[in-house]
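Journal club prep — side note

Before the paper discussion, L.F. wants everyone to see what a predicted structure for a comparable chain looks like in token form. Sequence:
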Amino acid sequence: MVEAATAPPPTKAGRNERRKAMATTLNAISVAVLVTMVIQPAATNHFSGAAFPLAVFAFLVLQLLLHYVLGRVED
């Protein structure tokens, strides 16, 4: 009978790097949402009033998530 190989547990540095990468990704997505739903339509004069609150809400939620992830970075 062959046993399945198990990966060693990630190190503290590995966990921190994964968390920082996730925070960077969330930040990039939040800025992209803000630009595509608010700044770009406003610049082209095709602004929709319903898109603004949704974009701001999505931006704030993603920013809160990234701060939560960064708060879990170990010293």
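L.F.'s comment for the group: Residues 2 and 36 are 52 Å apart (CA to CA). Keep this in mind when we get to the figures.
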